[in-house]
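Interim report, section 4.2 (structural modelling).
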Amino acid sequence: MGTLLQQIINGLSLGSVYALIAVGYSLVYSILLFSNFAHGGFLVIGGYICYGILKTFGTNIWLAGGLSLAGAGIAAVLTERLAYRPIRERTNVTLYLLIASMGMSIVIENIFVIVAGGRFRALPPVIPTAPINFFGFATTSAFDLLSLVSAVVFLGALQLFLLKTRWGLAIRAAAYDLRTAGLMGVNVNRLISIVFFVAGALAAVGGIFLSVRYTLYPQLGAITIKAFVAAVIGGLGSLPGAVVGSLILGLAEMLTAGFISSQMRDLVVFSMLVITLLVKPTGLFGKSVSEKV
Amino acid sequence: MSGYTEGIIILLCINAIAAMGVSLLTGFTGIFSLGHAAYMALGAYTTAILTIQHGVHWFPAILCGGIVAVVVAYLIGVPTLRLLGDYYAIASIGLGEAIRLILENWQSVTRGARGYPGIDPYTTLPVAAGIFIVLAIGMFNLINSRFGRACKACRDDYIASSLLGFNTARIRVVSLMISAFYCGVAGALLGGFLSFIQPVMFDMLKSTELTAVVVFGGLGSMSGALLGTAVITLVTELFRPISQYRMLIYGAVLVIVMVIRPEGIMGNRELLSWIKAPFRRKA
Amino acid sequence: MTAFFELSNVTKNFGGVQAVSSMSFSIAKGELTGLMGPNGAGKTTIFNLISGVYDPDEGSILFKGEDLVPLKTYQVTSRGIARTFQNLRLFQRSTVLENVMTSAQYHIHYTFAEGMTHLGRWRRKEKEIHEKSMDLLSRVGLADRAEQAAGTLPYGHQRRLEIARALALDPELLLLDEPAAGMNAEEVGSLNVLIRDIHRDFNLTTLVIEHHMDLVMEICPHIICMNFGAKIAEGTPDEIQNHPEVLRAYLGEEEVE
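Predicted structure of the assembly:
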């Protein structure tokens, strides 16, 4: 009973980190209708900025975290400006954007391989990881609770931004139809920059928590595969879907690790992808994409 | 001919076979894959296991390698390719990862992460070149046939093609299956060339390299894919000393080509179109 | 006896908006019918429902006695229905000839193996596809532009190319979606002649969507007029011309044109 509760908390915690990544990815997908494979790069950029600042300027996690979010956000905006916008403005072939995003993903990863080296780095111990006892039922770590709470705060903030602000409204309109939003007088390029900034910053939050969980290395971005799978399970392009899919995936992984075997985790993830694609390929909340004729 | 030159030519033939497969899928049918190295792995391991553990002759074994890749492609393609959107792209990453996990963990059959040694060196120059030529003729013929036009139609306008009577989902799946066959055979030949295969040889970097070659050569140009293979295989050999920059360069090439000239070196034209032109007019 | 083509009580909603409501009409074999109505009346939605791009919420669409509703788009084509598009959907990067060949191959078969080896029937059948396409291009007056990229053609020519591409499917029922959109008066005149000629020569049943009243009046003996998703009038040009509902629907619109 205790182990079960513990694994559920761990699973929700891991799932909530996936959710931070998957939501940003889905947000971009809902606007531009392509999978931004460079999304994992933003997470790595966030992780390394946080690491660098903690190492260089002491250990204020609030400053390091804030700069890391801003830095990853700006990197995402720059990626869009340099690599995607020129393609977007010339053609509507999303294949070109996919290929460019894969290229950017490789570029970002290998810049860190060359500059920072392939070593695994541990973030200085700024995030508490002490065990916490739950009224004698279960033990979990402060870190798991903290990452769960942070994810809830950031996702809540995103929700408020989308529902309560003018740009939030514009983004929701653009997710329905980008061209119409443009016709309604929304500055589409600025809107896309904002979306990328938000996606990059959320990925950085995920990146910081993942580097505490697994250590930091240039290929850490590959973990976004899990977020992609979560987004498919929830329904490509759907934000609630991304959150629900991520929590399901996190729970499935941790329960497998806790009760079957740690090695089976990834196999479970990919089986869930396969089952989703076979049974309900549009995911839990997805609707099939249709085109205007 | 020196052994080194011979080796390079064999490698060129193998890479070219795989590149033709990816070119059909990405360049002609417009489907993006991040896991084509997995089909190479399927071909390589099937062939290795059949020749070593079951004593099958290498030639039927290579064909079986291709066929196993085709079957897996079918299973993945049917649910994902009938949907619009990036479902296949994401599933292809999943495929790549799943194949790696299986190869690494199914020790009794695949001998795990340390690799599979002792494969017969059946990939001699005549074998590699012969198979390459046959497959190249087949591919060039194919893109100049009803099926080639169908692929391009699905790539350029999904809805218009379905209203012109094309079963677009089926065409996309068949294109994926042919593409998987070419990659499976290429993987099988690679095993025979190196006498040793290892799961890590077929990771996402290999898939990336395959796509990079095709993009560089020109999406929608089969001769471009061959040209891209030649350039990138030779450049890779030349720059072996600075190999840590190799991936960075691949990535940058992908982005720069997409931004500056998304149609690649060749555009969607063929190198030999001036030879084919008079023939086509007659045909 | 069942009608050649019959739409009965077809309704389609998008969100809360009723794009087509209880639409019914039938077309006899060999008729040249015009479907007219102001912009946004739901005409293109009718085509999308017929060709299977959308499924109707209610009603049935019968073609030669068979319900088209459960069929997928490509199956609708296989029953002998072809269409053009209001916002042209040509294969822009391919040549004019390739565009037509892509659909001309529909009824000219050879096997996959013959395609891969270029043996057997390949040469003969490809030649047939090529000749059929060139014939159709001559028919719509584009033979001299066969090798040009389709995207570089002037607008009016692109519309003619779409017609040639649809004809290459040997349809029994041809659906033309705003074939005159974006054309000048002179081009519209020659298009009228073309539509009438192919209708006769290819033994077609044709349904033309047009919001220009004049074009429909000139070539279509049978006209259906719709507004706000519903049929408001049906009859001969004379009957339509003086129909009070039609005049009301078009009043104000005509001055803008």
